[in-house]
Task: inverse folding
């Protein structure tokens, strides 16, 4: 095994602030929604905490955005413009997650600083980071001060529509959190990907890894994996 510096410091800062913020938003969101069933804190405290943490998470999002926009690591999010290759690579990854991993088969994706995500991750993270998260931020801000944004809320169909969208995305992220933790445990060891988000270094099979400069220079592309 060799180690690859795959998670730069800005990404790790963003990730852990985001992770802690999401857990806090989930807890306070549940407290707000089910005020009669959950008694962790007062309704007013839950609302205040939810609002403040929400703004921290929004600010944190821009750490991620600025880093990737102004860094050569933006390639890890580049879409696959070849539909046939995207489909083929996605099927390979699905087969690995569904069957291969239980038979000891090697992961078809080999991480690299410029090719960090497999085909499924690249597609999913683009949808989450560029569409779902911004929608959640906008609906959250509208609900934060309904009077101030009354015209926009009305234009979008009313507070019930805005609130429903916000709650549905909330449910999506609760499910995503559990799936994300499970998939993160599928590294060379169950803790490998978790450690990489603290140290920045990912373990990779030396025989199968591809030098970053080869990828950036348009050389052979590695296979796919998490």
Result:
């Amino acid at each position: 095994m060799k180690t690859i510096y795959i998670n730069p410091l800005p990404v790790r800062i963003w990730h852990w602030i985001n992770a802690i913020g999401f857990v806090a938003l989930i807890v306070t969101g549940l407290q707000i929604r089910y005020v009669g069933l959950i008694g962790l804190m007062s309704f007013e405290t839950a609302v205040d905490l939810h609002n403040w943490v929400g703004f921290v998470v929004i600010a944190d999002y821009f750490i991620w955005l600025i880093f990737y926009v102004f860094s050569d690591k933006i390639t890890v999010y580049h879409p696959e413009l070849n539909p046939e290759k995207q489909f083929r690579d996605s099927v390979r990854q699905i087969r690995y997650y569904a069957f291969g991993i239980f038979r000891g088969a090697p992961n078809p994706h080999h991480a690299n600083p410029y090719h960090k995500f497999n085909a499924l991750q690249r597609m999913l993270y683009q949808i989450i980071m560029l569409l779902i998260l911004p929608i959640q931020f906008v609906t959250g801000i509208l609900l934060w001060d309904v009077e101030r944004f009354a015209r926009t809320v009305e234009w979008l169909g009313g507070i019930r529509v805005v609130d429903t969208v916000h709650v549905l995305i909330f449910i999506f992220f609760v499910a995503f959190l559990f799936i994300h933790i499970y998939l993160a445990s599928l590294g060379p060891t169950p803790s490998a990907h978790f450690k990489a988000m603290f140290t920045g270094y990912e373990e990779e099979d030396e025989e199968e890894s591809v030098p970053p400069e080869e990828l950036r220079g348009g050389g052979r592309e590695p296979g796919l994996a998490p």
